[in-house]
Write a structure and sequence with these properties.
The chain has 13 helices and 7 strands. The strands form 2 sheets. A 5-stranded antiparallel β-sheet has the order 6-5-4-3-7, covered by helices on one side. It has a two-stranded antiparallel ribbon with strand order 1-2.
Length: 376
């Protein structure tokens, strides 16, 4: 049903008729429909903003007689008065722009939860698809981010920043630097540039390590290193090395100011901070557990040696799983073979023991016969 259109109505009645007869101006009352929050409106012809002529929008807020209208593209028009717009009834006019506007407004009312779930589902599907092609395409991450770039980059980046401040830091933030979704820059040649920077698909552990240190009650990374060494131990070369590494992180974190989310974002995108924080985490792990191999695996830059695999983690895990299954299969086959031989030997032993009944010496011979039978 179409809404009321503002119009003037003449009041009728005996009093009004009598006033008209007496040549007194009639009393006029103006009826108007005031749009509320969520109402679809259409702009009239506007000389100040010609680009708003006949555009559709949704009333975002209303203060007194001033409206704030949200356009289909997401822009907000402030300072709108009632004379600038007309309420729209979808039964009269139902253009595609109004449908899109209502869908956008509904998604915004729900807090963007549905759209975020749809985007997460699409990201997961693309990740599984392109990771399955990793054996044929070593640079599959580039194609993955190119296809993922079709999503709304700014909105996705804002959601990930919100998750990072909540403790679930997004990994591989270098992939989000390019708005086109390209993992490597245009001036780089893919993996050949890794000799001067960390790989773009490296999981960023720096922000989580930094958060764990700050959660222990220290003001900065240098204070954390000082808490691990007594005053007498601070003359050692190990302390000087770790203290300088911590200083690099503190200097970089200072650029974020007092904003925790900005500090974590800076640390996540800086290779020097990632290398330094992983070095500190590897040192404390080796000191706590004594496992040097595990500590070296935590390093962002690992020295080439026989104690470090160059194969990806999924390939190492797959090979280890295959080796374990083959070992279990051989153990089961060996156990079944021993059980079958043992059952045959026990029958021969009983016969030997029966033939050895009598004198003690003959019984020993029977026992010897049992051993011989088992040996067969």
């Amino acid at each position: 049903r179409a809404p009321f259109v503002g119009r003037e109505c003449e009041r009728t009645g005996p009093g009004v008729t009598r006033q008209a007869a007496e040549a007194v101006p009639s009393t006029l009352r103006q009826l108007s429909v005031v749009p509320t929050v969520g109402t679809v409106v259409q702009f009239k012809e506007c000389k100040l903003r010609p680009e708003l002529n006949w555009c559709f929008g949704v009333v975002e807020s209303r203060q007194g007689g001033v409206l704030t209208v949200c356009l289909a593209g997401g822009s907000l028009v402030q300072g709108v008065v009632l004379e600038d717009v007309n309420p729209v009834a979808l039964s009269d006019v139902e253009p595609s722009s109004v449908r899109e506007l209502l869908q956008a407004q509904l998604g915004k009312t729900l807090g963007g939860q549905t759209r975020m779930l749809e985007q997460a589902k699409k990201v997961k599907e693309l990740l599984v698809l392109w990771h399955g092609r990793s054996a044929l395409l070593p640079a599959w991450t580039k194609s993955f981010w190119q296809e993922l770039g079709l999503l709304e980059f700014k909105e996705l980046k804002e959601k990930l920043e919100e998750l990072s401040t909540a403790g679930a830091v997004a990994h591989s933030l270098d992939a989000f630097r390019a708005q086109e979704g390209i993992a490597w820059g245009e001036d780089e040649d893919g993996p050949e540039s890794w000799e001067a920077a960390l790989p773009p698909d490296l999981k960023r552990a720096g922000p989580e390590i930094y958060s764990s240190m700050k959660a222990s009650g220290v003001r900065c990374v240098r204070d954390w290193v000082n808490s691990m060494f007594s005053v007498e131990q601070r003359q050692s070369a190990r302390y000087v090395d770790l203290f300088n590494v911590a200083t690099l992180v503190d200097f970089k974190a200072r650029e974020g100011g007092s904003s925790q989310s900005k500090v974590l974002s800076i640390i996540a995108q800086d290779d020097t901070c990632e290398v330094a924080l992983r070095r500190l985490a590897a040192w404390i792990h080796e000191r706590r557990t004594g496992d040097r191999d595990a500590a070296q695996s935590m390093l962002a830059i690992k020295p080439s040696s026989f104690s470090t695999d160059v194969a990806p983690s999924w390939l190492v895990a797959q090979a280890a799983s295959y080796s374990q299954s083959e070992h279990k299969r051989r153990e089961r086959a060996r156990a079944q073979g021993s059980a079958s031989h043992g059952s045959g030997g026990s029958g021969g032993g009983k016969a030997g023991a029966k033939g050895g009944n009598g004198k003690g010496k003959e019984k020993k011979k029977g026992a010897g016969g049992k051993a011989a039978t088992q040996g067969d």
